[in-house]
Fold these 3 entries.
Entry 1:
Amino acid sequence: MHTDFDRCVRAVQSKDARFDGWFFTAVLTTRIYCRPSCPVVPPKVANMSFYPSAAAAQQAGFRACKRCRPDASPGSPEWNERADLVARAMRLIGDGVVDREGVPGLAARLGYSTRQIERQLLAELGAGPQALARAQRAQTGRLLIETTELPMSDVAFAAGFASIRTFNETVREVFALSPSELRGRAARGRRPSPSGVLALRLPFRAPLCPDNLFGHLAATAVPGVEEWRDGAYRRTLRLPYGHGTVELRPQPGHIGCRLALTDQRDLTGAISRCRRLLDLDADPEAVDDLLRSDERLAPLVDKAPGRRVPRTVDADEFAVRAVLGQQVSTAAARTLAGRLVTAHGEAVEDPAGGLTHLFPSADALAALDPAALAMPAGRRATVVAMVSALASGELALGVGSDWPKAREFLDAMPGIGPWTTEIIAMRALGDPDAFVPTDLGIRRAAGELGLPATPAALTRHAASWRPWRAYAVQYLWSADDHAINRIPAG
């Protein structure tokens, strides 16, 4: 996108928010960079330059605009649409892997040399993994500065900086303000948050239909791990340094997010996982335009545009839950998962509500005597095989996973059918083209819309929906009167 100069100019001059996160505008005279929708008067065309990432703009010597805060724009939808090396690397960087394990750790997870990763990221994003992680650390630091009363030394290390000096220098360079000046500006008119709670706004590209997104999460919530309370979805989080709880509330123009973490170093990863859970970096205009071209799907798209694919904060957890949910109702799947949590989950405290446990990790489940898993023998065998593969690393479903390799492994597992593979691909891997033509709800909706109702014929017809078949699934499901399509009252 950033290489198409004329298209970028048109987006900036029209202040088109759809392109926020796709590219960044650098102003040569003021040495600042902005998002395309920046509210200030657009600069002269001769003074514009465009960069593919905030990190690239920062490396070129530009500082972030104080009006539009380009560092806080939605992420590029490309990183959740693609399965190549650059997209996998960006998802891992977003999850904080470089901060925790360095570039060698990133390379080890991806199975490539550090040189190859540096080369490909530089070619596509204009910045290497260290610079991209540095830009992310700066944004995390700003969040902590502006939303907490943590001492600046704690902010620095929680954001992933190696020293307070580096933290101070980076904040000044990126935002043209010292950490204390940032905090002073933010404090004016700010409501104090409860001790230990971070209150954030998660941006997204409009439109966003929250009905199926929050309806699905609420309808499938596992007791003790998730709940719907007072108009918000709440759940526990298992994170690299500790654990936490999150409250996500749909609001006009953003998602309200309240995080309580046992270790502030998990902030970057927690935000990344929440954004991924709600598919907030999607490009709904591109998705809906393509699906609307099918005259049978168009009425569903027009009725409630901007549907997202509900994903997950923990791919291993979702894989286990998908197995438990095979060939049973939503309520039965919740009951089975709830029993597993009560028996083997890790207890946590939640002063604000009814969250009691972390979902048991694959390692913990793999260490159990299979007889301890209270479920039918066939399902138990599949769960045991799944958690063993996850714990050993044979099956990788995390943000940096190889999608084709994971699919191939799932297809070969006894007890895992096409429906389970595709549901895991859709929600755990995040594949936007995952498709479940054997799903009863999909087949029923297809028949009512005049679409082919057999799996094979529907798959052939759905070729025109690629690469957005996972979104087509959400629209087809919306034709049914099911709890997953409605935000609960209260």
Entry 2:
Amino acid sequence: MTPDGTVRYWAAAKEAAGTAEEPYRATTLAGALEQVRSRHDGRPALARVLGYCSFLVDGRPVGGRDHASVRLAPGGTIEVLPPFAGG
């Protein structure tokens, strides 16, 4: 069975997606992000924002890992975090 979970958008990603969160059904982070891009193909700003965001999967930073290698667990959460200003 393919895991399902929630994608949560923050700041500019939330604005670009037009929603604070939405479901995914994928086994990897790359698969979930492909679903996001397909679902929002009429929102090119979201595709741009995703290109410079950081991601947390179940509270753990993804960092520079290949998104195809990041496995998703059932009921998990992907946090989409644009760079934040301030200190």
Entry 3:
Amino acid sequence: MNDLLKRHQAVIPDWVTLYYRDPIEITHGEGRYVWDAEGRRYLDFFGGILTTMTAHALPEVTRAVSEQAGRMIHSSTLYLNRPMVELAERIAALSGIPDARVFFTTSGTEANDTALLLATAHRRSNQVLAMRNSYHGRSFSTVSITGNRSWTPTTLSPLQTLYVHGGVRTRGPYAHLDDAEFTAACVADLTDLLGHTGDVAALIAEPVQGIGGFTSPPDGLYAAFREVLAERGVLWIADEVQTGWGRTGEHFWGWQAHGAAGPPDLLTFAKGIGNGMSIGGVVGRAEIMNGLSANSISTFGGSPVTMAAGLANLSYLQEHDLQGNARRVGGLLIERLRAATAGLDRVREVRGRGLMIGVELVHPGTGGADPEATGAVLEAAREGGLLVGKGGGHNSSALRIAPPLSLTAAEAAEGADILEHALRSVC
């Protein structure tokens, strides 16, 4: 055991998980690659849990951070903050929500926590609907709406949460139905559930479930849900912490695959917008966002340094059409992985959109989750020079692939080759 690992274990809680039998220390990165303390290079297909969205050590972002830090690092939301206002203006315009307001936080957990505060205050109700297999953060309130037992350490909750079908297309009681029938069955379930409750504050849903293993419903399901919810005044919160900023390729926001009934009432974001800097936030209708009856601030949300990073990162993303790149290169990668895994009994499914791809592993014959095989492939990929993530409901049996959106076709092919070798060595 190396010295840093011993020191980590002496001061960090046991529940702060580390990847790999021999955990690695990542010391620096460039583009789509990172290096560990031993000098070994890895192609990064996980981007710090979908956070390094554009590239490691992106010059435009590091320069913006350095220049802003040389002027002012911190002031808080008690003072006018030009970078914060400028980024809020851009996010409000991009959100698709009319008359939008933006509140910045430091993480996705805090963003979702804020959205819950706003929704429950607006509706005067602490009843919340969430999706099975979902993940929304690690605070007391967000744990209580997370529908994944691997990430729910307590059943105590400040909210009354009810879980809805629909986030997982290929498992569960409706998996055998076609897309239209699946959507209809989930809508009927939602309608029935609402008939047994009081006034519900909101439904919170990830358009593509992140920790859940990159699962998603058929396009249009949340639009159909929204019609049912809107009749009762129930808000829709789209958790775009992992799906936002063009990662899915087809859309800038994941909710746009479900946009027939209009945009969400509240949209939460984080991770990729900061490209590693701590940015989260909520954007929503002014009626809801302005609805708190007490003063509030954010000490670190909207920091001039993080806002400068977000502005530079968003500009780079749009100027280089990284959404289009995610669609093109992601399409190549997912087809390459499907071809590579054809005939492997342990690979149940390769799914995803853009550069958000899941590979689900199961026990051959039974179809049951195989977390041991998933862990073994994770290790084998690292040995081959590739970093991927894992997740999924029912014991985390999916590999999660989410490289920076600037991934090249050559790097996609390189990563696919390494992952194919890792899968074949285990499966």
